[in-house]
Amino acid sequence: MDWQLLITQMLNGLQLGLLLFLVASGLTLIFGIMDFINLSHGSFYMLGAFICSSITAKTGSLFIGIVLAVLVVFCIGALVERLIARKLYQNDHLDHVLVTFGLILVFDTLAHLIWGSQGRIISLPDSLNGQINLGSLVLPSYRLLIIGAGLTVAIGLYFLVTRSRLGMRIRAGASNRQMVSALGVDIDRLYLIVFALGAALAGLAGMLIAPITEASIGMGNEIIIIAFVVVIVGGIGSVKGAFYAALLIGFIDTLGRSYLGDLLALFLSSQNAETAAPALSAMLIYILMAAVLAFRPQGLFPPSNS
Amino acid sequence: MKKTKQLLTSTFIAASLAVASANSYADGVKIGFVTTLTTPAGVIGEDMQNAANLALEHLGGKMADQDVELIFEDDGFKPEIGKQKTDKLVKKDKVDFVSGYIWSHVLMASAKSVLDAGKFLISANAGPSQMAGKGCDSNFFSTSWQNDQTPMAMGEVLNTQGVKSLYVMVPNYAAGKNMAAGVERTFKGEIVGKDMTKWGKDKQLDFSAELAKAKASGADGLFVFYPGSAGGAFIKQYQQAGLKDSLPLYTVFTVDSISLPKLQAADMQGVMGSKSTMFWGPDLDNAANIKFVSDFKAKHGKYPSFYAAQSYDSIMLIDSALRATGGKVDDEDALRAAMEKADFDSVRGDFTYGNNHMPVQNFYLREVVADADGNWTTQISETVYEAHQDPYAADCQL
After folding, report:
1. Which of A13, A254, B220, B315 could make a disulfide contact with B55, Cβ separation 3.0–4.6 Å?
2. How near does any CA of chain B get to the CA of A53, in Å?
3. Which strands, in side-by-side order, build the sheet including B62-63?
């Protein structure tokens, strides 16, 4: 066993898991609190990446780009909630799916009109394009930054949800919606904040990944499916569940890609192993979801009292 | 979840069908062109579309004095949609030729529709081994290459460069497998590791796990095939991982005029000097290529990609056949005989067709350099193969 490789892969898994968490935390709150299925949540991820690329190109600073773009995506999220989502809370899930799927098309086309069909890159400053040596480990510095940023946001969210008044209401909303509004909490305002906050977090995830891949149309549609898997595995409405499920899925995906081929080669011919491994590692997270749905349908960490 | 996915798929299909236009002429030549115009890979399709249109413009909009209608269709990067669009072109638009096809799996799904109808199919990119070997067809032609050839040339380059061990990374689909098989066919050293990553509409773009494995393998070189936008993403991560000096990069169909401008904008110096093999280059010195490249640059402000070169040639090949038959589109045998001669000024210089209708052509080694204006491009440094025929030709019964 190559320990250096294992540690590097664990960090890669952590990075993927944290990005998934940023997307899934908003999704799970919106799903859990408002009972609203938001397929277009991935669009905020894409918009975050594109807006950040434009601002970064203008100002020359990735930091300013991220800060401003998070604010912009927060506002877009608030607008979508106010103008569209709010009217749909009373309707059933099929309506949510239809409308938010339409929103995906609208946002994709909008991005096409504004930024063109080509993806857009976000340039990193030289200091982030390099590597950091940790003993004998050499790691890309930008990936460490993603891990740092992801953990910071996760801790911030933990304190927000468990220690603040807003967080108390969010948790209460996730457990029992009717009771919260019966107790006189301004539910409209709570919904608005949760929706916009979720959008901003998804946008942040898009901004963080774009310097590695690029901002491209449809990038959100790729991650939204996995984010839903995270939400289901973690337990709908549970931020804590989303955190653990996102990390679990990040590790499963990364380690599956890293070691499954060698593992299969132990009892399959190398030809078969090398074809089966990629297919199987892409399936692993769905197998996990199926297992969770079969044995623990409420998810691994459901919100209390639900 | 499944419902959601099904809904997504069906709505995508509905949306893309709505885009397709339907108008038909009675006379003239009709050419269908299937490529990817949406999804991030749409940038490739755009390049092909521009080149096909430029070819038609160079022909004055006519082939053998007949009006030409060029109908573009978007395959959405999906075999099933590519097949639907091909069916539509053959049955509804009643085209005489179908060209295009970036992706091997899309071509494989669509080929039967064209060939069973007795029409001509001209691949302007995809070159799966099946179409070159046992599954070859008298009405199938290629203006590109068979998938294995370009990586085979790269295998030879690796041998002469003294690379003893190699790590291979390719996407997990028909062409990816052919590319890996191609380099393994000629490379004499040891393949110390191989990754096949998820591909398609939701393709994997974060290669952290694979790059860490490649680095840990201690290989002398890294061979990759990542066409389209995935290429840019790969190169960025390769540079960010700091592998330039320890693990030199050898690519096929990855570093091209689609990825290079973006890499230059991000100042990814790691790609400078990286080596790739190809049947063509924008600097190839022949009259047809000089005209093609300069007119394309004047019109679109960038170098044409190899996808563009192949698309340009596919239109020119059809034109050469129609000139030979005096514009008759219904004489299948005469058209085929004319196409087999490859009697046109190809941007790659002279080439001939093998028994399986795959080009027998030169392959070159190219390096990334900055041109006179400072734009990053590729420059041919040596000829690896002269008049090279693909290894599957012997399996073809034509």
Report:
1. B315
2. 11
3. B62-63, B66-74, B29-35, B97-100, B120-123, B140-142
Q: Say how many CA atoms lie within 13 Å of A26 toward its Cβ.
A: 33
What are the C-alpha distances in Å from A79 to residues A22, A84, A192, A199? 20, 8, 9, 11
Q: Give the integer Cα–Cα distance in Å for B200 and A19.
A: 21
Distance from C-alpha of A244 to C-alpha of B398, rounded to nearest angstrom: 59
What is the distance between the alpha carbons of residues B79 and B84, in angstroms, rounded to a whole number?
9
Pick the CATH number of B2-145+285-350 from 3.40.50.2300, 1.10.150.130, 2.60.40.1930, 3.40.1190.20: 3.40.50.2300
Domain boundaries, chain B: 2-145+285-350, 149-278+362-395
C-beta atoms of A140 and B242 within 8 A:
yes
What is the rounded CA–CA span in Å between residue A195 and residue A216?
A: 23
| Cβ–Cβ below 8 Å for B262 and A118 | yes
Nearest CA in chain A to B262: A121
pTM, two decimals, is 0.84
pLDDT tens profile B77-108: 999 999 999 999 999 999 999 999 999 999 99
Tell me the shortest Cα–Cα distance from B241 to chain A, in angstroms.
5
B345 burial type by CB count under 10 A (0-12 exposed, 13-18 middle, 19+ buried): middle
ipTM above 0.90, yes or no: no
Distance from C-alpha of B97 to C-alpha of B83, rounded to nearest angstrom:
15
Written out in words, the top-level CATH class of the domain with range B149-278+362-395 is: alpha beta
- Nearest alpha-carbon partner for B313 in B331, B332, B296: B296
| Cβ contact A2:A273 at 8 Å | no
Of B42, B172, B239, Cβ closest to residue A117: B42
Q: Which amino acid is at B249?
A: L
Query: Model confidence over A186-203: pLDDT tens digits?
Result: 888 889 999 999 999 999
Taking any CB pair shorter than 8 Å as contact, residues of chain B touching chain A are 1, 4-5, 7-8, 11, 15, 38-40, 42-43, 46, 172, 194-198, 201-202, 205-206, 208-210, 212-213, 216, 229, 232-233, 236-237, 239-242, 262, 265-267
